[in-house]
Every structure is written in C-alpha cells, then in structure tokens.
C-alpha cells in the first residue's frame, strides 16, 4: 500500500486515508519518527495510540518514590526547597 502526500510550507504532511485506515490511526494518536536514514532520505513512522500514555503511567523512575500523590508532592516540595535554598 502506497500513499503520496505533499509537505506544506509549515513542514506538515497528511497521512493518506487508506494508510490511516490500515493502521487504525485515531484522533489524538501520536506519531514517532524513528530509524532516520539521511543518506537514503528514509524514515520509519510509528503510530503511538493515545491510550499508550495512560498505560505508561508510573513507569518512569523518579527521585520521589511515594505511592500516595499527596506524600509525593510534599517530598518533592522539600527536595525543591533544599535545591533552590528557599526559606
């Protein structure tokens, strides 16, 4: 399946409808550009479903490790006070 589109003056492109349908692209999905090969002028475009963000919630490491959001905010606040020497 092929699709040709034109780059706008703002550097934007529209993913052709047959491609969007085949990939089940929805409004709010993200697009990732990976495996850039400048020599061949090629790039791989990956669709990241909007729901993936929800699925990744909590997967990143942080200096503050608290399950309770209020405790986490309080701990982060104390670290920032120390870092920026706020009284």
TrEMBL record:
<dbReference type="Pfam" id="PF04014">
    <property type="entry name" value="MazE_antitoxin"/>
</dbReference>
<protein>
    <recommendedName>
        <fullName>SpoVT-AbrB domain-containing protein</fullName>
    </recommendedName>
</protein>
<feature type="domain" description="SpoVT-AbrB">
    <location>
        <begin position="5"/>
        <end position="53"/>
    </location>
</feature>
<dbReference type="InterPro" id="IPR007159">
    <property type="entry name" value="SpoVT-AbrB_dom"/>
</dbReference>
<dbReference type="GO" id="GO:0003677">
    <property type="term" value="F:DNA binding"/>
</dbReference>
<dbReference type="InterPro" id="IPR037914">
    <property type="entry name" value="SpoVT-AbrB_sf"/>
</dbReference>
């Amino acid at each position: 399946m092929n699709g040709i589109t034109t780059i706008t003056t703002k550097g934007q492109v529209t993913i052709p409808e047959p491609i969007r349908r085949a990939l089940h692209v929805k409004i709010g999905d993200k697009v990732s550009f990976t495996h850039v090969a400048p020599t061949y002028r090629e790039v791989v475009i990956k669709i990241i479903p909007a729901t993936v963000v929800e699925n990744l919630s909590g997967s990143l490491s942080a200096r503050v490790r608290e399950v309770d959001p209020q405790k986490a905010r309080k701990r982060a606040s104390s670290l920032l006070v120390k870092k920026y020497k706020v009284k």
